[in-house]
Amino acid sequence: MIDRETVLHIAQLARLGLSEEEVELFRQQLSSILEHMAILREADVSGVSPLAHASRLTNVMREDEPGPSYPPEVLLANAPDQEEQCLKVNAVLEES
C-alpha cells in the first residue's frame, strides 16, 4: 500500500501540484496498480519466449509498388506560394 508521502514525492518528481483529494485518489489508484503487478509477478512465464509484439505476424503491409501520381497542378492547387510547379517556402537555414 502506497502512503501519502510517497504520492507527494512522486508528484514532486513529476512537477505536479495535487489537491488533497487527488493525493488520496492517486494513493488508492497507485496501490491498486501495484497489487495487480504483484499478481502478475506470480505467473509462471518460464516457458514463454519474450516477444516484441503480442502478434506473431511479421509483415502485414502490402508490397510497395509504384503507381500513378497526381499532376502538379492538383497538388499545388491550395499552395499559398509556388514557383515553376514547386511549393515555395521561406528559407529555413541561412548561410553566414
From TrEMBL:
Pfam families: GatC. InterPro entries: Asp/Glu-ADT_sf_sub_c, GatC. It catalyses: L-aspartyl-tRNA(Asn) + L-glutamine + ATP + H2O = L-asparaginyl-tRNA(Asn) + L-glutamate + ADP + phosphate + 2 H(+); L-glutamyl-tRNA(Gln) + L-glutamine + ATP + H2O = L-glutaminyl-tRNA(Gln) + L-glutamate + ADP + phosphate + H(+). Transmembrane segments: none annotated. The keyword Metal-binding does not apply. Gene3D superfamilies: Glu-tRNAGln amidotransferase C subunit, N-terminal domain. Its EC number is 6.3.5.-. GO terms for molecular function: asparaginyl-tRNA synthase (glutamine-hydrolyzing) activity; ATP binding; glutaminyl-tRNA synthase (glutamine-hydrolyzing) activity; transferase activity. Keywords: ATP-binding, Ligase, Nucleotide-binding, Protein biosynthesis, Transferase. One of its GO terms (biological process) is regulation of translational fidelity. The keyword Transferase applies. It comes from the Bacteria. Heterotrimer of A, B and C subunits. Belongs to the GatC family. NCBIfam families: gatC (TIGR00135). Allows the formation of correctly charged Asn-tRNA(Asn) or Gln-tRNA(Gln) through the transamidation of misacylated Asp-tRNA(Asn) or Glu-tRNA(Gln) in organisms which lack either or both of asparaginyl-tRNA or glutaminyl-tRNA synthetases. The reaction takes place in the presence of glutamine and ATP through an activated phospho-Asp-tRNA(Asn) or phospho-Glu-tRNA(Gln). This is Aspartyl/glutamyl-tRNA(Asn/Gln) amidotransferase subunit C.
